[in-house]
Amino acid sequence: MTSSPPARRSFDWRDLGVRLASAALLIPLALAAVWFGGWFFFLLMALIASRLAVEWGRMTAPETRGRAALAVAASVLLAMSATRLDAHEAAWSLLVLSALVVALTFGRVTHRLTDVAFGVIYIGAPTLATLWLRDGEKGFQWTALLFAITWSADTGAFLVGSIVKGPKLEPRLSPKKTWSGLFGGLLAGTTAGVAAPLILDLPISTVTAAVIGLLGSAATIAGDLWESALKRRFGVKDTGGLIPGHGGLLDRVDGLMFAALAVAVARAVSAGGGA
């Protein structure tokens, strides 16, 4: 008589434990950096951007990973440097120009020149958007709102998707993601978008806060899916091994990168384009 196969667990407690452990380390550091702002926040963002560049080079151009990482990191750091002079518009111009230079340079050493150059925009754009959020009026509040929406959407999607399960969202890209997780993430992120401004004393209406929360949470989930598509394209499981059980830093901040752009645009619109 053959034994019955073990029952499938309805909830991945081990995955939750790893997430909580990484959150316990990363969240206080992020909040401290946002609180102090200035050079402390800038240097932390520079370290993060540099690490993301290393992982991008490893994923997209393994044969020249060192040079690819250096090119992407130098380009992003150059654009970031302009923000310390409050030249945010110039920073975006530098970013685009640097991406073009990287594309032309890597055309001589690798057939993946566009992949490497795209890393300058992929990493640099959300980095500049986050710096702009923090450097502007009520910068701490806006950046904290970004984090609240992103973390809530990510956690809501994971918990609801793991418990409720149901039909898959896009199995070709990410076999674990479900429609229930999508709606759970949108609800959690929108709720955080409404609640956070009340706690942070951010002068925006409830309707505006709800829209920002919905857009930010949708961007968070879209960023996660986009990263899954990139990893599938380049044939890698994780972007690195920095975080035990969760791969690289790029695997953990993919949603935040998209959300940073969404919240930055929402802030610009709500403020009439002002900082």
Number of helices: 9
Q: Write down how many β-strands occur, each being a DSSP E stretch of 2 or more residues.
A: 2
- Spans with pLDDT under 50 lasting ≥5 residues? 1-9
SSE pattern: HHHHHHEEHHH
Mean pLDDT: 86
Report the structural category: mainly alpha
Q: Order the strands across the largest sheet as they lie in space.
A: 1-2
| Termini Cα gap | 72 Å
State the share of residues found in helices, binned by percent.
over 70%
Structure explained in plain terms:
- The structure is a single chain.
- The chain is an all-alpha fold.
- It has 2 domains: 17-135, no CATH class; 138-275, no CATH class.
- It is built from 9 helices and 2 strands, in the order ααααααββααα.
- A two-stranded antiparallel ribbon has the order 1-2.
- Helix 4 runs antiparallel to helix 5 (113-135).
- The longest helix is centred in the C-terminal third of the chain and has 29 residues, at 206-234.
- It is globular, with a radius of gyration of 19 Å.
- It starts with 12 loop residues before the first helix and ends in a 5-residue tail after the last helix.
- The model is unreliable at 1-9 (pLDDT under 50).
Write the layout of secondary structure elements.
Blueprint: H1 13-36, H2 38-60, H3 65-83, H4 88-106, H5 113-135, H6 139-164, E1 168-170, E2 174-178, H7 179-200, H8 206-234, H9 249-270
Antiparallel strand pairs: 1-2
Short summary of the structure?
The protein has 275 residues and is mainly α.
Task: Quickly list its features.
mainly alpha; two-stranded antiparallel ribbon; 275 residues; 3% strand; disordered N terminus
